[in-house]
Amino acid sequence: MRSLPRTFATISAIAALAAAWPTLAAPAASAAAPLDQSIPSDLPRTARPSHYQIEVTPNATDLTFAGKARIDLQVFTQASSLTVHGNGLKVASAQLIAAKGGKSLPLTVAADDAAQTLHFDSASPIAPGAYRLDITYSGTIGTQPSGLFALNYPDKRTGKDTRALFTQFEAPDARRFVPSFDEPSYKATFDLSAIVPANLMAVSNMPAAREEKLSGGLKRVTFATTPRMSSYLLFFGMGDFERTAKKAADGVEVGIIAPAGSGDKANYARDGLAEILPWFDDYFGVKFPLPKLDNIAAPGSSQFFGAMENWGAIMTFERILLLDPATTSPAEIQDIYSTQAHETAHQWFGDLVTMAWWDDIWLNEGFASWAADKITAHFHPEWDFQLNGVDGREGAMAQDALPTTHPVVQKIRTVSEMEQAFDSITYEKGQATIAMLEDYVGADTWRAGLRSYMAKHAYGNTVSSDLWTAIEGAGAKDVNRIAQAFTTIPGVPMLRVQSATCKAGQTSLALTQDAFSLDPQSRGGAKPLWPMPLLISVGDAAPTRHLMAQKTETVTLAGCGPVLVNSGQLGYYRTLYDAPSLTKLTQTFGSLKPIDQYGLVRDNLSLSMAGYQDMAAGMNLLSAMPANASATLAADTAALWQMTYGLLEKGPVRDRMGALISRTWSPRLQQLGFEPKAGEALTDTKLRAQLIATLGVAGDTAVVTEARRKLQALATTPAALDGPLKRTWLDVAARNATRADWDLLRQQAGKASGVVERQLYLSSLGRADDQALAKETLALAISGTPDATSASQMIASVGSVHPELAFDFVRANQAAVYKLVERAGRPRFIARIVAASTDPKMEGKLKTFAATLPADEAKPVVQAQTALRQRVATRPTQRAQLAAWLAKSARR
Q1: 487/280 Cα distance (integer angstroms)
Q2: What's the pLDDT at 71?
């Protein structure tokens, strides 16, 4: 007997949600005019949809589906054919019927596979007017996360695998599900119904309006009409699910949908969603316009994305949605909250207001990333989440400082370019630019501008300039000027502090603007000019704002003392200090705020690694971090020590670095202990995990010994490692694994009760230092035994330790490996595999591989090649300078 959470809702709840929908303030769909010529499109501007009525009948066993679509559309000019998007769909019949009635026009169809379009030809001219396009068609269900796809997972009750269906349509994959105008500016309303097994749950953007019992153990589930939205936001899911739900403070029902038997694992996400949604209602000044918001847990993973913001029906991979006390790490607990915040922010930025074309995808992703950090810091101040912004800035600059970078607002014209647009520039640079602008204009003015933007453009499409107009309309100055520079000029600004002179109680700063580059060959020549919003503090005085609009300026500030440029770390630029100024900052480092300590360390380590200053400059700041730093700051600092250790080759210098790391961080770990304590702060648990990881990589004897002991315990006690440190201990043990250890890990993967635990063991197999074991992991990945998403993780794990081995394996077995990775993610998958390589021969291999790809698919591989060239060029100097710094430190 199934309990109530196992069904989508009771009939009364369904009726209540559906009945509430007509009262919501959603405008009627409009298709009164052709798509504006200023908006790019793959389609002729002959017609425009206003409403879709779709019925889908999936066959999960055979991985096929049948579909019927009725598209209400307006034809603007006389035509002999209509063109819509379709990819991999087989049309059985099509006809066009005038809205005013009359005889239907039979249509013949021709598919253009390269263009991903369907052309419906009519024997007689199609006059301008309103029509209904009826299509009967079929398609395939994929096994990779794009279009309509299937994922298998172990049923905890039966021990057998079960299958669930999901959709992922961003950017160009709604066309795999239904013939459609599959571009963001062709907004329409959607009615979706699905014929599914009666014992399974069907899920979509809206609540179910009704269910009908059919013969053959089937049912038809019809969902309420969606608001006007882009096709990529449509969602359908089906499986043996259960739903836990509650009313948020704004009256919207929020729910987590997960595999049956998940139980309390969904509660943390559900409760978080219930507090996140009303906060965004208030912040954006527009109440969430749908009657419910679900987040659906999907087993497995993707090389392309972690979650998708379908309106009213977010889809998130299980690892970052369900909290399992046996496997969920402290970092993943934070990820559950922040990822859900990111996807919920999209319900406004992206869903309610959508970019007109993919050029402005950053309007979705940059803003969702910024909003997620903002709300996470609001509800969890104890996490010190503002430090996350520094990491995001650094991630963006690592890509933005290469010659292969691109502007935030980028020109996108092909499907492949759409798929490659989701990168650090779009997300992290977009987020950093927004944070900088909000700080510059003030939080209240910024919020007022966003509220105006949401109210004006609800259910519509925008470009970046619409946002800057709204912010300036709220009273902000210089926003368009600054934003245009930071979103249209690629690259990383760098501020050089040439000198800081104190006289008569005032400090005079000589500043020069430059561009930071990881490529020494591109450091000469003309540089762009950015209007740079600076926040400068001198000693203990309050920071002073200054907009630097010239290449060289002198700024005079009240007070004397150490000068800190980019106080608060919200500026998107690097700061290269003259030696006396940096020395003063290093000497007074302990008095700085944690955000400035962390930002200063990260900035200077990056400048040192790029060759702008000696590695000693960054390492001196890293070593100055107070021993009693907060748990979050200490964890972030320990991770930086681990990064510097990874720069060194095996040998005496790396051994000395490992010994220094052990001396520095073992006392903090001993204070915490190896095991989590009941009731301890999440940040302490996370610090313990990071310290174990860092010390394990550095070869700390106590940590490595404990990891081996815990691994061996699995042979007799399968739950020996269960808990928030399971992933951490497995990674340390796997790095030092023997053949017997590797066999044990593989056996545990076979016994795992869920996809997350299984992937935990399988991915750990690839982290072995032993190359023979790494080769066995690669062979296992394409053997057909692991599922596809687990197998791709295994190959990526090998790449993190043995990049050359993994790359050569992928090239030699490319057809088999490509079956494991969705097409959109393949170039990035290759780039990820070689991200740790420092082998000069790899550059030629990447160049050869990139030449086999179409130009619009090769970008991630070319970027990886460029980054590799930079690592090869700078690593010898980094190693020599680290050796000198270690020798000098030993003499102190």
Answers
A1: 25
A2: 98
Instruction: List Cβ neighbours of 246 (8 Å cut-off, separation of 6 or more).
Output: 253, 254, 255, 270, 271, 274
Maximum Cα–Cα distance across the chain:
94
Distance, in Å, from the CA atom of 566 to the CA atom of 509, rounded to the nearest integer, reads 14
Please determine, for residue 430, whether its predicted confidence score (pLDDT) is greater than 90: yes
Residue 788 corresponds to which tokens in the numbers above?
A: 């596809």
Of the candidates 165, 163, 184, 188, which has an alpha carbon nearest to the alpha carbon of residue 52? 188
Q: Pick from 584, 594, 587: which is nearest to 628 by CA?
A: 594
Give residue-wise pLDDT tens across range 624-651. Answer: 998 889 999 999 999 999 999 999 999 9
Band of pLDDT at residue 825, cut at 50, 70 and 90: confident
What was the pLDDT predicted at 6?
Answer: 30
Determine whether 377 is exposed, middle or buried from the number of CB atoms within 10 Å of its CB (0-12, 13-18, 19+): middle
Whole-angstrom Cα distance, residue 632 to residue 626?
13
Q: Is 304 exposed, middle or buried (0-12, 13-18, 19+ CB in 10 A)?
A: buried
> Do 406 and 490 meet the contact criterion of CB atoms below 8 Å apart?
yes
**pLDDT band for position 101 (cuts 50, 70, 90):** confident
Cα gap 483→531, rounded to integer Å: 9
Dist. CA 697–CA 645, nearest whole Å = 8
Does residue 310 register a pLDDT over 90?
yes
Question: CA nearest 611: which of 650, 563, 574, 658?
Answer: 574
Asked if 806 and 795 touch (Cβ cutoff 8 Å), the reply is yes
Angle CA 62–63–69, to nearest 5: 115
Cα–Cα distance for residue pair 167/784, rounded to 1 Å: 24
Sheet arrangement for strand 147-154: 147-154, 161-168, 236-239, 201-204
- In 3D, which of 44, 45, 115, 40 has the Cα closest to residue 411? 40
Residue type, 9: A
Residue 759 has φ and ψ, to the nearest 5°, of -65, -30
What is the DSSP pairing of strand 147-154 with strand 161-168? antiparallel
Point out which residues pair with 56 in neighbouring strands.
67, 194
Distance CA 788, CA 728 (A): 24
410: left (phi over 0), alpha (psi -120 to 50) or beta: beta
Instruction: Give pLDDT tens digits for 592-616.
Output: 999 999 999 999 999 999 999 999 9
Q: What is the distance between the alpha carbons of residues 309 and 342, in angstroms, rounded to a whole number? A: 9
Amino acid present at 626: P
- Per the CB < 8 A criterion, the answer to whether 84 and 91 are in contact is no
Would you tell me how many other CB atoms lie within 10 Å of the CB of residue 65? 22
What is the DSSP track for 410-434? ----SHHHHHH--SHIIIIIHHHHH
Which one-letter amino acid corresponds to residue 369? S
Q: CA 883 to CA 656: how far, in whole Å?
A: 9
Q: What are phi and psi of 228, to 5 degrees?
A: -65, 125
N-terminal to C-terminal alpha carbon distance within the chain: 72
Of 626, 629, 631, 627, give the one whose Cα is nearest residue 682.
631
| E strand spans, 410-543 | 461-462, 492-503, 506-516, 532-538
d(CA 822, CA 853): 16
Catalytic residues: 343
Q: How far is CA 604 from CA 395, 496, 576, 632, 882, in A?
A: 14, 12, 8, 20, 14
Q: Residue 671 has which token pair?
A: 């204070």
Q: Which amino acid belongs to residue 205?
A: N
Q: How many CB atoms lie within 10 A of CB 64?
A: 15
